[in-house]
Amino acid sequence: MLVDGRYRFTRVPTATDLLNGLNPGELWEACLARASETLDPTAFSSWLEKSVFEELDAGRLTILFPNNFVAGHAKARFGEMLERILREIAGRADLTLNFVGPPAGPAQEGASEPDAPLPRGPAPGTDYLRPGYTFERFVAGPNNQLAYAGALAVTHDGSNSSYNPLFIYGGVGLGKTHLIQAIAHRISQEKVPRTYRYLSAERFLQQYITALERGEVVLFRNKYLNVDFLLMDDIQFLKGKERTQEEFFHRFNEFYQNGKQIVITSDRPPHELEDIEERLVSRFQSGLVADIQPPEYETRLAILHMLAKDEKIDVREGVLDYIATSIRKNVRQLSGVVHRLAAYSRLTGEVISMEMAQKEITSSLGNIASRITAGSIAALVSQSFGVTPNQLKGKQRKREILVPRQVAMYLMRELTTLSLNEIGQFFSGRDHSTVLNSIERISHLMSADAGLQRRVDDLRREMNAV
Ligand code: ADP
Ligand code: MG
After folding, report:
1. Atom in ligand 1 nearest the alpha carbon of residue 174
2. How close is the Cα of 376 to the center of ligand 1, in Å?
3. In terms of DSSP bridges, do strands 60-64 and 52-57 run parallel, antiparallel, or are they unpaired?
4. How many Å separate Cα 181 from the centre of its chain?
5. C-alpha 183 to ligand 2 mean position (Å)
6. What is the Å distance from ligand 1's center to 173 Cα?
């Protein structure tokens, strides 16, 4: 079960001498719980959430997925990581994982959704909506004003052409999914509810490929007929997926021409979407493009007040203010701190004091600090810029390599306690003045280049470093 973006491991482990006290099913659940702590919630729910343990045979755990495509993709993307987690939790180095789809036979559940006229409300194949992601629980502030107003406007006007599509972009944990789901909640609660189809681009891809595999593309397309709102979360995921982009382009046009509303979210503005076809990018730009920035102090405080009220917790004077001052870049982290404090307070019956809040924040920031190393920064930066870690450390001075190298140095300086010398050591023994120079140069470049600045902000957020 996913709760607040985390997979909750609910069953109490039964004692067996195997696998550190867990039976294999519980072991798999524990692995999922651990994986969900680091994975993006959308990726987690698209690829892993529906997996279940099937059998254990000679150290090999077979895990069942909804279909072969999901099983294959989950293996390629998360297989190694999950095996590592598995071995760690079970305390056995010999365990392996085997990911499978259901045995061949009659079509599985969900494969043959009836083609009958759609009911009002969510269209089949729509992703789950979080109950709390409503307009009522969204705090509007200067940081998200335009996106908020745009989202509200489309629920009033439907496909008012000037807001079609509505394209909302912003960094991780800033409320994009909340806003797009608020639209779905709102239009399905109207007196005459309108229909919507809400899904992440990742899910769109997955469903499209499954449809191709099964020769059910017509069925797939039919699900987009008779729908009033197409709400697509995290469009950046279509990067490099040409055929799926092509399909999306057609669905997009169909919606648009039929005067239906389209809302899209993304982690970056349309023109910075890489490996997305030009014609799609220009479609995205043709309506209202609205960004969400990290919230200002007042908005953070208002969000905290709302969360504290929801959790019905008592906090001492100044505590919320302290949290709002300490965590600045990510709303998800704000709510994480409040939820953990609330749980603690319910358990102990204590009112949340400044001391408790300080401890919680230091420990969550401490966790972050211990996770971030020169190696993890180098790995993330190389991946993001498409260079190899060796190129990053090496001597080449081509711009495509130099910039990521400097970004990595900059982030190491900011996020770790490494000295300039130590950073230099990491980069094939460069001396500290070279490192300092590089950091200064990249800071300069960032102040002149908003795209680069945003990219670095995103990397920082990806590492969950506030
Ligand atoms: P994103 O999709 O941009 O990564 P989410 O929409 O998942 O971020 O938001 C992360 C968390 O922060 C969610 O729990 C969401 O409810 C909360 N949140 C973000 N912005 C706001 C806001 N302005 N008001 C209330 N809650 C917010
Ligand atoms: Mg999201």
Report:
1. 3
2. 26
3. antiparallel
4. 14
5. 14
6. 6
Ligand 1-lining residues (CB < 6 angstroms): 133, 137-139, 144, 170, 172-178, 303, 331-332, 335
CA neighbor of 177 nearest in space, from 5, 295, 33:
5
Chain centroid to Cα 310, Å, comes to 24
Q: Tens-digit pLDDT profile for the chain (466 aa)?
A: 555 555 554 444 333 335 766 777 778 888 888 888 888 877 888 888 888 877 777 788 888 887 777 888 888 889 998 999 888 888 788 888 988 876 553 322 232 233 333 345 666 667 888 889 999 999 999 999 999 999 999 999 766 667 999 999 999 899 999 999 999 999 999 888 889 999 999 899 999 999 999 999 999 999 998 899 999 999 999 999 999 999 999 999 999 999 899 999 999 999 999 899 999 999 999 999 999 999 999 999 999 999 999 999 888 989 999 999 988 888 988 988 999 999 889 888 899 999 999 998 887 776 666 677 899 899 999 999 999 999 999 999 999 999 999 999 999 988 877 888 899 999 999 988 889 889 989 988 988 888 898 889 888 877 766 5
* Ligand with minimal distance to 172 CA: 1
Per the confidence metrics, is the pTM higher than 0.70? no
- Ligand 1, atom 20: nearest CA belongs to which residue? 175
What value, to the nearest 5°, has the Cα angle with vertex 283 and ends 259 and 281?
155
* Ligand 1 mean position, distance from CA 17 (Å): 42
